User: Fold this.
Amino acid sequence: MKRITRYFFEGLLLLVPLAATLYVVYVIFVKIDGTFNSIFKFKIPGTGFLLTILTIILVGFVSSNFLTKRLMRIIDATFTRLPFVKMIYTAVRDLMNAFVGDKKSFNKPVLVSVSPDKSIQLIGFMTREGLEHIGLSDKVAVYLPQSYNFAGNVIIVSRERVTPLSAYSGDVMAFIVSGGVAVK
Assistant:
């Protein structure tokens, strides 16, 4: 009976993440595909999803053009001036830039000592090396992602409490988000 129970849990460990991932991908595919198919009345499954991908690529191509960069700067400046829109737009823009833009913010993994004897440490990413603009010249900003969550905290610590890690940022983020389980 113990062997059957062990096989059952091993099966769960394999199937649950696989099924959850496939389900999320399926739901996203169906939503995107259904949205485009209802707008353009396509009957071929996948056409809406393909159009979404092509639209994103086309917008990326157009926005990288010299002539449209000026237009994009005007749109950016306009959105950052509108009171309520500014809050949403800049937060989403900065988050996207932190991961995929030219100004990646999560590329400096660090170890932060939170106790004087260094017995308690946290892994995060240094996002600002100088905080003079808020009157904290001897401090740095460190982003601490949360495990099994797409949230995190920014902490301000003395520069002496931060130790740079010589590791690939993507591996460090996977390690943190997985609760320390993911290791390459």
The chain is about 55% helix and 15% strand. The chain has a mean pLDDT of 76. The CA atoms of residues 64 and 184 lie 35 Å apart.
